[in-house]
Every structure is written in C-alpha cells, then in structure tokens.
Amino acid sequence: MEFGVTFFPTVGPKDKDAQTYYDEALGLIERADELGYRHVKTVEHYFFSYGGYSPDPVTFLAAAAARTRNVRIITGAVIPAFTHPVKLAGKLAMLDNLSHGRLDVGFGRAFLPDEFAAFGISIDDSRAIFAEGVEACRRLWSEEDVVWEGRFHQFGPVTLQPRTVQQPHPPIYIATAMSQESCEEAGRNGYHLLLVPATSNRERTQELIAAYRTARAEAGHEGEGNVQLSYPCYLAEDGAEARRIARYDEERYNERLGEAVRAWGEVSSSAYPGYEKILDATRNYDFDKKLGDNKLLAGTPGEVLTQLKEIESWYGADITVSLTIHSGLLPVEQSRRSLELFAEHVAPHFAAQGR
C-alpha cells in the first residue's frame, strides 16, 4: 500500500483568501515531498466553496512541481468536457516536462449541473464528450499528424508540442464515483482508476474494483492496474481531539457539497442515474456512521492504522491511498501535524511489509 495527498479546497472568500490557501497547500506539498509521500493530487471545480479554489489543476500542480523533486503530480481530475483537447493535451504535456516526467493524468466526467450549464454543454452528453476528450489527448501525446473527426471536436493534422517526457504518454487514470461502466471501460483501455469510497458502501466499492480488474485482464493488459482510493484524514496524539476536528471539517464539507449539488433537485439525466438522490444524501449526513464505516480516517496514529488494516483486508494490499488533509477550514498547523504523524507512525507499518 502506498500513500499520497489530495488537496480539495472547501473554502471561499468569506473563509480565507485564495492566495493564503495556495501558500498553505504548497507548503504542505513541500513537506509531503520531504516525508516520502508518493503523490500530490488536486481537483477541478468551479464557482462554489466546494472545490472552487481549484478551477485549473495544471496551474496549481505546476507550482507544486517547482517546489518538489520526488513526489508524483496527479490531476485528480481534469475535465475534458470543459477544455478543447488540443489545449488540454498541450497544457498537460507542458506539465509533464516541467515536472521532469512526474505527471499522472486523471480524467473525470464532472457531475455538477451548474458547471455544465456555465460551459454551455449538455450534461446528457457528458459520457460521450469525456470519452472523446480522453482518446484525443492520448493520441495527441503518442502520435504525430493527428487528424480528429469527432462529434464534438474536429482538428488536424496536428503534431503536439512539447512532446511528453513519458512515452508514449503519462499514466492515465479514470475518475469515477459510482459508475461500473466507467470502471470497465478504464480496464479495457488499460488505464488506472481513481475512486472515492465515501460515495458507495464497501460491497459496491469491491464490485467496482473487481469489474475494473476483470475488464482489464480480459482485454489482455498486464498487471492489475493502479487503484487509488481517497480518504479524508485527521490525526492527533489525542483521538478525541482528532475526531472533534474531523467532525467540524467534515460537516462543513457536507454543507458545501449540499450547496454545489442543489441543482440536482431540479435536474435529472440518464447519464447520471441516481444522482437526483445526492441532495437527500447531504441532508441525511451522519459523521459517526461515516467514521464507523471507514469512509474517513480519524484518531490517533494507532487508531488510523487499525482502520487502514481493515481497509486493506477489504480491497487488497496493492491499492494506493490518497489522504485529503487540508480543506482550508482547519489551521494549516493541524494539517501539517496530520501529515507528519501519518508519515512517522502509520505509513512505516506498510513499508515494513515491503508494500
């Protein structure tokens, strides 16, 4: 099991100015690199306190790359629907060069109706435009004189510059919340997988991972692929204190998610079955149940280690765990302490097993 760090801001101008959040997050990234974490990752969202301080992961990760030497840089995820593929592929190729080949590219479909509306894109087309964008980027990285005649974009012949450092292209990850179809498609294409266990129960997450690995094997790809699971993480020497700050941060996260998904109360789409229930889920949020179900990590290092051992027994030792440690709502000193306690007292138990 390997570990990295995710940055998912849930602050807005009324909470903290963006400059301060970026400075805090980049300082934590430098520390994560020093401590031996495997990756740093950030999201793409707009308008809301739910992720809105991260409208362009590439810009943020370019700054992260300049401050680090070893940690891998992951888009978790960029949204092909919102950027022309020639532009997106070019930005990411540039980031691969700036990071000296440390880039992993995670692609996502997006799921907030307000974001699709702002870009003038039908949410019903999200799966098709996503698939087209990912494949166009892959070809632009790995081929020359690319001619593209798609439903949403037409271009070519184009030979992208700069070429990516990693050949034929950086590792590709597909982000999905609940879609088995997306997991199977990622497996068939030989890509890797980004999952958020908090959106499903344990059994469903196991089904998604199994579907991905089965599709990957049936398509003839070597290895099981990298499955990365994201978890909020809060550590302190005192377990009760860790759970207190976790409850505060998680309840604020849920409030901001509720604001961002409010449009699902009036929107439905066959491309997102069941998403009309997401607003009800935010209204019925239960921190204690989420903690008890190991959908977040909170406590002393020993308590979090126990949680991770159980998670390992569910999903296997070959997963990567990405720790969400700094929403911006908690003092940065608390996030740094969680980062350090985990690296010093939790991660070594897995490294000692050769994982």
UniProtKB/TrEMBL annotation:
Location of the Luciferase-like domain: 1-315
InterPro entries membership: Bact_Lucif_Oxidored, Luciferase-like_dom, Luciferase-like_sf
Entry protein name: LLM class flavin-dependent oxidoreductase
Organism of this sequence: Streptomyces blastmyceticus
